[in-house]
Amino acid sequence: MAAAAAAAAAAVGGQQPSQPELPASGLALDKAATAAHLKAALSRPDNRAGAEELQALLERVLSAERPLAAAAGGEDAAAAAGGGGGPGAAEEEALEWCKCLLAGGGGYDEFCAAVRAYDPAALCGLVWTANFVAYRCRTCGISPCMSLCAECFHQGDHTGHDFNMFRSQAGGACDCGDSNVMRESGFCKRHQIKSSSNIPCVPKDLLMMSEFVLPRFIFCLIQYLREGYNEPAADGPSEKDLNKVLQLLEPQISFLEDLTKMGGAMRSVLTQVLTNQQNYKDLTSGLGENACVKKSHEKYLIALKSSGLTYPEDKLVYGVQEPSAGTSSLAVQGFVGATGTLGQVDSSDEDDQDGSQGLGKRKRVKLSSGTKDQSIMDVLKHKSFLEELLFWTIKYEFPQKMVTFLLNMLPDQEYKVAFTKTFVQHYAFIMKTLKKSHESDTMSNRIVHISVQLFSNEELARQVTEECQLLDIMVTVLLYMMESCLIKSELQDEENSLHVVVNCGEALLKNNTYWPLVSDFINILSHQSVAKRFLEDHGLLVTWMNFVSFFQGMNLNKRELNEHVEFESQTYYAAFAAELEACAQPMWGLLSHCKVRETQEYTRNVVRYCLEALQDWFDAINFVDEPAPNQVTFHLPLHRYYAMFLSKAVKCQELDLDSVLPDQEMLMKLMIHPLQIQASLAEIHSNMWVRNGLQIKGQAMTYVQSHFCNSMIDPDIYLLQVCASRLDPDYFISSVFERFKVVDLLTMASQHQNTVLDAEHERSMLEGALTFLVILLSLRLHLGMSDDEILRAEMVAQLCMNDRTHSSLLDLIPENPNPKSGIIPGSYSFESVLSAVADFKAPVFEPGGSMQQGMYTPKAEVWDQEFDPVMVILRTVYRRDVQSAMDRYTAFLKQSGKFPGNPWPPYKKRTSLHPSYKGLMRLLHCKTLHIVLFTLLYKILMDHQNLSEHVLCMVLYLIELGLENSAEEESDEEASVGGPERCHDSWFPGSNLVSNMRHFINYVRVRVPETAPEVKRDSPASTSSDNLGSFQSSRRPKVLQRENSGTAQVFSLVAERRKKFQEIINRSSSEANQVVRPKTSSKWSAPGSAPQLTTAILEIKESILSLLIKLHHKLSGKQNSYYPPWLDDIEILIQPEIPKYSHGDGITAVERILLKAASQSRMNKRIIEEICRKVTPPVPPKKVTAAEKKTLDKEERRQKARERQQKLLAEFASRQKSFMETAMDVDSPENDIPMEITTAEPQVSEAVYDCVICGQSGPSSEDRPTGLVVLLQASSVLGQCRDNVEPKKLPITEEEQIYPWDTCAAVHDVRLSLLQRYFKDSSCLLAVSIGWEGGVYVQTCGHTLHIDCHKSYMESLRNDQVLQGFSVDKGEFTCPLCRQFANSVLPCYPGSNVENNPWQRPSNKSIQDLIKEVEELQGRPGAFPVSISSETNLSKEMESVMKDIKNTTQKKYRDYSKTPGSPDNDFLFMYSVARTNLELELIHRGGNLCSGGASTAGKRSCLNQLFHVLALHMRLYSIDSEYNPWRKLTQLEEMNPQLGYEEQQPEVPILYHDVTSLLLIQILMMPQPLRKDHFTCIVKVLFTLLYTQALAELSVKCSEEDRSAWKHAGALKKSTCDAEKSYEVLLSFVISELSKGKLYHEEGTQECAMVNPIAWSPESMEKYLQDFCLPFLRITSLLQHHLFGEDLPSCQEEEEFSVLASCLGLLPTFYQTEHPFISASCLDWPVPAFDIITQWCFEIKSFTERHAEQGKALLIQESKWKLPHLLQLPENYNTIFQYYHRKTCSVCTKVPKDPAVCLVCGTFVCLKGLCCKQQSYCECVLHSQNCGAGTGIFLLINASVIIIIRGHRFCLWGSVYLDAHGEEDRDLRRGKPLYICKERYKVLEQQWISHTFDHINKRWGPHYNGL
Prior knowledge:
By secondary structure, the protein is an alpha+beta fold. It is 47% helix and 6% strand. The relative contact order is 0.04.
């Protein structure tokens, strides 16, 4: 190695080390000394010698790494071999040297600390990568991209601000301290101080070494990058190679990154190094004789060349090849100037286009005089380390480490400017690399990570724009990028089109690869100074419009007419995204700077170039006057730019609209395509495009969807409104009907032919056309509404469709798509408008219901006055939403009593039009529209086919709009001159709707098919005036021209339109020869195959007014139903706004219109009165033709069939009802106890059950047993009880920890293992209960079924292929009746289940007799009505259910015996199941029995049946009578002091037994059914034991003094008669007995400390004893209630003890209740008390002689458990999130990707983490088994939701944290502050305690142990 180093050193030209060289190994030993020596040498004033020495050393040290790169590049193995000792070693060595040298001989860590002290940290600048959690505060941000790290955010004060937390997508950096990006008020405490003043100056010698060492180090890194990069083969660089090089460089880059973190002082040194051009020149020029450097320089040149960049010889400057011919030369020059080195394409590149205007050859470009600074031309080569570093960063596709290093330097201002310029200089190169990249997503994120830091800063952006032509570069780069994927447009004229559009199928668009560049562009346009430069620069605008035109007409849809399209392309997503991002967002950005009068010039510029681009486009697609049929594109960005700038000009800049409008011909062209889109929308909704697949519907929806609508449909409609306001109204109206293809329908004849539309589509297309007109005429979004009014209208429309949550409203209200436009959703105005129009409905919780969220619902007055159906129709994506809004409106009217029937959409008054658009209203006053309205009214009145109520509604709406917007009062005189006879030539005399309404039309000539009824010659009688005169005229083929025969008018929309179009063109074009355009109308003429048309003349004699009045009659179904209201009250005409008319149906609408017509003109009023006076006879029945007869018959037949069907259905319903009544008593509330499981009627001899499968009723028999549907589940809820009321808190700091020592399960475990240490195993297993953890809980829905029926039901489920939410193989099913989840069937025991009277009656036997009977009964094995020997079906089922019960829980929760598989285990397990179920029921009742009453769910309890099953199995194990505890309880035995310890392990002393367990053992050992008096007897005996235990525990707990005092007090009373029932006497006796052993002796001081010294009063002692006994009494009472069906009494808490005692028969009947109750009075000793106590205490005495401590511990039984609770959660979710989302997992010590925390015990786990997987179980599943026996409740930290694991299934439960608007924030997408919702948490806890997760949550899925 040394040799290699020496050789390298020798190779350095000329610089020989001034000292004799040390051997390398020696150097290594003494780095520190060398460093110190060098530092001293360099500190001298004349430091040349030192500098040279250092250079040589560095040369040597850093060259030692050279072989490594060669190895990495895989080029020169020999060189690698020379490297000896492995590359890794050399690298580390070099880094060590650098650290030593920087520190100048001191320790590196001290050096770091020293440098940090000089850090003037005014900026935070913390850089983060993707997935980091950061904050954004809109209140403090100046730039919308502002973000803060969590630390700065929490240190600052943002209370009440509009902030949110977000997960970084691309990475970012903290802006704290940067006043360019955020307001200073939001800075955190650390970055508030303007720190430059108080930081001392950096001592010169501290960083001196760094200045010498770092240039070499960075050069070394660059050499590495050069060496490591191999020009890729054709398929792009192999990712592996690049990554390998990067991995090797990891330590070097990390070292640099650490340097940046040392603070400002070090950063400024680094900046100097990175930007110093001299250093770079010296080191990298490749001159000199160092071979290594030369080689690396060559590699660098190769890399440049292959990137299409040229390395300039020094004095020459080369132009750049131009990407396309189309760009204006000005832009080209700008571009060349800006990015010289980044020449767009190499000559060899395939993108080269022929028309490169000679720029392809290298030649100088002279810049226009001085516009661009000449110096820009010099940046053609990399002149500093920084520039080359960025170059390689791009080459290597932005490695994360490099990006972080480059960004970490940004707080240094000088660096920031240099870096930004460098970035801009490389911009085109970045784009090219991005296009080629395979990982474009990652790369895009990294690019934006950098650029957003640079371009969000306005000052910086402005500087770069001025100095580096940023705008030119960006626009040209974007243009070039898109040019690579252009195709020929097929719009309009496919063959001759010259227009090119982007191809949406290309990866560039499909994958959004253009996103980073567009996003940068939008970002810089948000700065006013930059945007102004853009809007002033004509060349740029031209280029930009050129760019936008690439999107004009993209993604063309052609209607499939024959078969369904084979392949539905999904390119439309790409197209919509591209238009929104690349065109609309920059447009909104520019618009946001055109808000004031002074900016008029900008608008004029944009509009001018926009129109030019549009004109070019029309020429390119060869457009004349008709759009090509059956094709539509939704993308017209040029139209939309034009529209939006017009709107802005009028609204904000007070520009005169006409000054920016083109001529009429251009307007006509402009309206065609937007109108085509509107017509296509109607076609799509009419299913005419159905063969194009679903994607075309998707496009129609996206076009109006909230994120797109104000960049798509709104500008389109606005543009149409502008055109309509300036074009001839008749032309416009006829164009609309022609586009919608319903011209042929608008005829008076009853039949017609439509040549362009199928009959089934006609009606919906007509509805579409009318709806479009209504929207066009009543929408005011851009015609004069203020921003707040718009917001209000949008909000009302959304709320009327459905109640909305706050976040969905924010999402649905179209905000300005450009985030920087200033109108931010969630802004002040949003909240104030919301509170004005809506009421907040807080979420409600029914424990079983679905989790609701907080919703906003419209206020009543909004429905009353602001509901606007037009706005709703415009904004609905789905048609059903319109219906939904109408339904809600109807409901409101019914509820408020305003209107009972089915209302029509209300007519809403509009805001006034802006004066510029007044012309729009001419549409309402043009003859064409009036003719259409008249025709439609007539057709509706005559019941012509194809017309719906919707059509009528729209017609009336249009008439009303016309009346509202009529011209000033017409003079009545001029109108009255001459009658209707005068005007032959046209339908209506004038164009004012008010006067035209009363104009009578007598005859109309129509073209009809020969088959039409009008053609038939009728008898002359029919020509009477009231009938339809059907004169047949001779057939005239030339009818299309207007006839002046004086009798009738014929009307053709198409002809009308042609004429107008011709006129306009003649007017607008001077050269007449150009006028003759090819007539395209031939398309619309009827094809020859149609039947002959013939002309008929109809006599009409109606006016619009008369038609309306007749309609009123028709709608109301009464003759003469209309009576003019002003005849009664003339006032009504003066103020026609009457609330009475504002809501209602068609009748109301007609009345409202007539009223308005009358109030606007006296003539109309008079005519209406006249019409009403002539009693209008009913329309006579038309002659019925055969064809019509046929249809009538059909109708009649249909009607009859309908009636028949109704009848059948009614019959079926009544049958069903009676069936329900019989079969489903089960859930009817009246019968509280439908299953006679727990009925208390004694006369029932045998219980009868209904099988819910076969429907038969009957008793359960041994051959055909019935069973209860049950769900068995293991539960550890009981084990979670603690002895304090306050629930534990979830730990949110490192200090807080939860230890499970005090849980019920832990205490019981400790007790059992203690007993097992000292006593005989089999006896221990009878002294306690298990099942606190993993106990089996049995619950039922109360329905029963035959067990054989159940088996066949399970079979059918097995064969059912439907995906069920449960696993049939595990025996799971849902109850066939109520669908509740279940997994087993519990057999019902035959016989009556309530005991017959003899059993119930208390017998008068003495307690001694009963004790004997009990003992005998227990001794008899298998004394059962069912003999076990004979296998009946019943006993088989009982065994199988017992198996199920065992398998429900894990083995570890069943086996506690030391000898595995011992029968004692089963015995213990079985009575513990009973215990578990009783204890859980007690908890469900709130932990006590004060509420009394029947069981919480009388029919739902299966304890009785469960007892039978358990008893049957318990009896199989007979206890040896020797060991039966019953003996010890009821008989005195000979005490033999010697007996004590012969055996190895004694039995458990009776005082250590758990009394409740003893109770269950005794009862389950008895033959069933049990007799009541035996039960009472057992309870009495056990109570004596319990009481003695209480006294013993009390004696241990009190102090020595108390003990002796009590001992004496009691001894005195011992002789009294009632001594056995006095606690004092008994206590003193117990104390004296126990003190014989060593129990009290060990009394050290620590004992006393444990028990708080209480002053014991008689009251407190009584309370203590009662509390000790209560749990036993509660369980016993519950048991009695279930076994004997007795109700539980309710009581106060104080008297619970006495009530339960008397209910259990413990209290003697003669007991007086006056004096205070004493628990001792319940005692009923079976044998003399003192003797038996002595016997019991003796057992303990013999034990405590050896183990006093344990003896004492075992006497203390913890019996007072409080209810179980989940952990208490903090108020604010952020506290949980901040602690846990970065917390490391205790198992794998990594930070989990999906952290979760258990809400039962607080354990932190990795969800789905493979790191913590054990035996194929992931951690959450494993934890759910250990903590909850299969039930786990986890809070997912990153999603704020709760997930429930139940066995092998899981479900998402929802969130218990809601934001201020009562909404969940799943996955923290919105990142708003969340607060605990206590009601929800209670519901969750309730479901956990009551084990109802399975029943209430519906969406379960299997987790395959993967959670």
